[in-house]
Amino acid sequence: MVKTTDVPNPKLIKERVAYHESGHAAIVYLVGRRVKNIQIFPNSVHDYNGHVEDDSDDNPSSLEDVKKSICVLYGGLIAESIKYSSSDVRPSGLGMIDKVRVAKLLEKEDIGDQKELLKEKTIRLLNKNWAIVEGLAETLIQSKDGCSLNEDDVISIINSNK
């Protein structure tokens, strides 16, 4: 028997995904890249997925691009952490893909010693620019089901929340 407390709240899940993706998007912008698209969409009765598309290469070539990519990957998890502290409203697999990608980039460039510095940089950027994350997340949350924001939408929201 499933208790109602065991069933995830779809509204909270949608909100958490919106903040996660908004964290990625805010960092994309703050490190000087273009956000092409942000999406959140339901993938079952009780879950949502999301995605941010930017203008970066999947295989960054310079050390600076690798560092930017790591900050972008941390952006989702850190935005959630800022918004929700340690509360769990989604399964523990949340952000696992981001964590794997960070580990691969750190290993590729042998910069594991900079992991904490890059996390701290991401935390500072998000805290200083939290209004951008809030503006993007609220727009995604207010959509009826799934939502997709194009580059012009994103820039407009960012500019109105600087």
Notes on the protein architecture:
The chain is of the alpha+beta class. It has one domain (4-160): Up-down Bundle (Methane Monooxygenase Hydroxylase, Chain G, domain 1). 58% of the residues lie in helices and 14% in strands. The protein is built from 6 helices and 3 strands. Strands 2-1-3 form a 3-stranded antiparallel β-sheet. Helix 2 (63-84) runs antiparallel to helix 3 (96-109). The longest helix has 22 residues, at 63-84. Mean pLDDT is 85; it is low at 1-5 and 87-94.
CATH superfamily: Peptidase M41
Largest beta sheet: strand ordering: 2-1-3
Question: Unreliable runs, pLDDT <50, ≥5 residues?
Answer: 1-5, 87-94
Task: Note the overall shape.
Answer: globular
Question: What is the total number of structural domains?
Answer: 1
Structural class, please? alpha+beta
Strand content: 5-15%
Number of H/I helices: 6
Average per-residue pLDDT, rounded, comes to: 85
**CATH class annotation:** Mainly Alpha
End-to-end CA span: 48 Å
CATH topology: Methane Monooxygenase Hydroxylase, Chain G, domain 1
- Helix amount, in percent? 55-70%
Radius of gyration: 16 Å
Order of helices and strands: HEEHHHHEH
Q: Count the E strands.
A: 3
Q: Which architecture name does CATH use?
A: Up-down Bundle
